[in-house]
Amino acid sequence: MGEPDEVDQALPYRGTDMSDYGIPLDDLKELMEVRGTEGIAEIEQKYGSVTEICKRLRTSPTVGLENNPKEFELRRQVYGSNIIPPKPPKTFLQLVWEALQDTTLIILEIAAIISLGLSFYKPSKDIQDKLGGGDESEEKAGWIEGVAILVSVAVVVFVTAFNDWSKERKFRGLQNKIEGEHKFAVIRSGEVIQIPVGEIVVGDVCQVKYGDLLPADGLVVQSNDLKVDESSLTGESDHVKKGDSRDLHLLSGTHVMEGSGKMVVTAVGLSSQSGIIFALLGATAAEKPAGGKGDRKKAKSIEDTNPVPKAAAPLDPIGASPSKADGRLPPLQNAPQPPAMELKEVSLRDEPDGKVDSPTAPSSPGEEVDGAVKQSKSTSFPRKEKSVLQTKLTKLAVQIGYAGFAVSVLTVIILIISFCVNTFAIQGLPWNNYYIQFFVKFFIIGVTVLVVAVPEGLPLAVTIALAYSVKKMMKDNNLVRHLDACETMGNATAICSDKTGTLTTNRMTVMQIFVGEKHYKSVSDCASHIQPKVMDLLVDGIAINSGYTSRLLPPDDDREGGLAKQVGNKTECSLLGLVVGLNKDYQAVRDEWPEERLYKVYTFNSSRKSMSTVVQKEDGSFRLYSKGASEIMLRKCTKILDVNGDEKDFSHHNRDALIKKVIEPMASEALRTICMAYRDFDPAEGEPDWESENLIVSNLTAIAITGIEDPVRDEVPAAIKKCQRAGITVRMVTGDNVNTARAIAIKCGILTPDEEFIILDGKEFNRRIRNEKGMIEQARIDKLWPKLRVLARSSPTDKHTLVKGIIDSTISENREVVAVTGDGTNDGPALKKADVGFAMGIAGTDVAKEASDIILTDDNFTSIVKAVLWGRNVYDSISKFLQFQLTVNVVAVIVAFLGACIDNDSPLKAVQMLWVNLIMDSFASLALATEMPTEELLLRKPYGRTKPLISRTMCKNILGHAVYQLIIIFTILFAGDIIYDIDSGRGAALHAAPSQHFTIVFNTFVMMQIFNEINARKIHNQRNVFSGLFTNPIFCSIVVGTLIAQVFIVEFGSVAFSTTHLTVDQWGWCVFLGMGELLWGQVLAFIPTKKLPRSLTIGGGEPEVDMVSIADIDEPDAIESMTELRRGQILWIRGLSRIQTQIRVVNTWRSTLYEGLDKTRRDTSIHDFMSTPETHSIDFMNANGGDTTDGGLSGLSSANNRSSRSLHSYETTI
């Protein structure tokens, strides 16, 4: 390996504008296009070795780049930055234009323009007299109504556009903030540091490990059993082994599935392979990738050198990374993306109902799975699936829209018939073009009825409530990647939680040790009793056979309580702490055995659940160090070190006795047990076949067994008690053995004395849920999960099976909504299957975070409880708005309809109804969707999947308040002139002056809505509607602002709003009748909800899956011009419109570039895999025999897949 002085002496190759670097940018790009053995041959032919490439790039494989900012800036100028410029956001005027595309608004605009034009037409005096025309001054002001409608439409459009613009800006700002906090480990000046991925430059030496998503293209410098999933680029799901003799190329956006190593960065940003694809797709700003004209040629070269088509761009752990394995084209790893919005998608299953059959056995015993999921042969497009609440809301909005349309049409028909009968039949008048104004007026009334009836505020309310909650949840350590996860979490009925780091502190310490045939209750007691030979084996085994990224650092001030700071895998850190406690120096051992000297490493993964490292000693012989779950490791041991450090035989009886006397007592004290072992290979037998892992890791000699304590977080028992009180069942799914899991579950409060429960390990769980043929049966799962509280020694596939079984079960009344926590790469299937997947922000891998819906930035279970609180608040906020809006809808539509039938005119004029529409849509959605959550939300049971959207209590309130308002409105309408001693406004002429009568009707109607908005704050029959009122300044501001605006409209609106001045007494009556809503609400609270019929609900039952094929909306313009979608819905889709375009382009590109490829090859694309994640993950489980629990790892369930990482992967979804 080249040292810094060697690098400095390297003679750089001077290409055009390449400054002091020996390899031009185009050469590096071409270098990454040929991979595998051909790529290695090309490297050797052109440069000799990767070390020589490092010299030319003026970097060192061991020391990295010098920490020199000027040097980094120069490299960015030469090779480019590790970012992809996003397309600029839409301007405010563009959003205004989009808002103007709404169908109902367009109709209203056309009608208003026609009305405006006809207002200048003057009929003869005789016709005016026969029709009872208004005075001349009012006729001259006839144009004002048309202008007022246009102005009102403009206000609605600008409010909508401003909402879209402000939300888009906030999402971009949040996205950029999170991207800046995402970091990756690089070596600079010999130190391993974490830097933002956007700062990575060509020549950087990066440390890669299990679970990472690679931020740039590079070449392998050092590999420890490194395997990479390149399916995001190649469409091939098989893991690719990386090393000197296999493949040296690492590509951005691909997943490190096993092992660790180092790579030297050779291409970043638009120059990387994935960046080139993005540039071809037009998924970036109008900047061309570095390399200019050669890019098309490069793309052709990709085709020539890689027979596998580029099915998708790489996944993005920062920006818009596709969770739920949705098959969309994700953006580049480190690219700042457009507003962080994503539509969660669901795959198309082979079965019509979306279910997946139980898995079948692999085709052959030797079939290699390597944790990869198999490819599906389905070539259907992925589809997006709306959340439970969203599906119910959409269905309700459509139904209301149909009803409103019918009423509006009926209103227009009745008005026209009534006018025609009265004018032509009764009065016998001849036709005159002047009459067109009446028909236009009738049409405008009908359209405004439709505008009021259609609840277009629903999407806005959902968006505001979710966006507001996302912002607040960040302060509660919940980083939401999919917006709909907020409301879904509010309906959660079950939480399947990991133990380590979530329920426990993840601050691990070795408390007990069994070594030299003695069980020491304290580590300090054994230091002087361990034989030197045993001590050396113990210290070397721990120091060498662990990730070198795991280390102990001095404490940060007093935050660690004076204890060493643990960096990296916490289990390994506890073992390193044992070494320090034995007064030994693990770093000295690592200095003697640097990573480059490690001969072979079997890194931890979920299937082997252990870690082993081979070193070659000075005499040429080999020694293997291994550690793992004690019961598992002891099965592989045939010898054990005695008190003198000598090897003695270790039989099955010895093992059983050791488990009973040592391991079970440790586990009963909630200690995780880890066994260390070693094996020396006889040099006379030659070098073993290192690929035969099962033979290598056998015939071991046990060194010691440690008991590791991971204390339960102080706040967890109280949090679990809150969940249980809220009707949420908490289950613990862990890799620890049953005894340890039981002890922890009791401490947490998951197991309570008064409850009947089941505790199973993975092996027994699989035995109970499978039939004689080894197939999983839902009926068998249904017998287990209601009482199952702890699943120990479980594999990720066990977790997936449990989650899927609970979600698919129909034995509970409202269907279960399941949340799951996960941190490892192979937790992905369970996180994707769950209704809400929580990834660990600190200990979680990039892959787990990508598969999740919410990231816990503090890895704390209490943050999940806060997510439940916010989720329920979101659901309730939307229900509050729904209760308020439907009341307004019912009253406004009935008043307009009956007024038209009885009086040949609507008491509420077009402009007035637009104002009411603005109140109940934009303003009310903002007011009611920003309520803060309260602890009382956790005192009720979860809604579940089948709970009606509009409950009996809400129906009671909607109908009750509607009755009150209708009685008041019609009383004023037909008797108001007598009650208030004023002129009647009924039967007024076309251009008659505004009357006090109809002004009082309008003003009273608005006052009732304002005070009913206060009633709508409570939806569970609470009496105190003022509780917490002043904790929401937005609500108070909107109510006060609406009141002030109403005063101005009434007093100064004149002809534009069809209002006139009211006296103080008349104002007093309007306000009094409005306040009567509060008293009427108390009366309604006396009506017992339980005695109301259950049929008085809306939106109950299992929601229908409402899916839209991506293929049908793959054009951004098509998406944004879908007239049936309101602006809020378009906003939800806009964030993904670019990706939808990419899907279309990529499929077209593939069909042309790879037309000659074998069909079988094309059937195994990434789209196929991503479209059926459950199928593949279950196939993987079955390929492992469905019984992977024997390979479980106590105390090492998190090994190598935990790392200190920053927040990333922000995405929002509706």
From TrEMBL:
Biased composition (Low complexity): 1195-1214
GO CC, any one term: plasma membrane
Residue span, Cation-transporting P-type ATPase N-terminal domain: 44-120
PROSITE patterns found in the cross-reference section: ATPASE_E1_E2
Matching Gene3D superfamilies: Calcium-transporting ATPase, cytoplasmic domain N (3.40.1110.10), Calcium-transporting ATPase, cytoplasmic transduction domain A (2.70.150.10), Calcium-transporting ATPase, transmembrane domain (1.20.1110.10), HAD superfamily/HAD-like (3.40.50.1000)
Basic and acidic residues composition-biased segments: 342-356
Catalytic activity: Ca(2+)(in) + ATP + H2O = Ca(2+)(out) + ADP + phosphate + H(+)
Record's subunit section: Interacts with PDZD11. Interacts with SLC35G1 and STIM1. Interacts with calmodulin.
Identification of the protein by name: Calcium-transporting ATPase
Taxonomy of the source species: Eukaryota, Metazoa, Chordata, Cephalochordata, Leptocardii
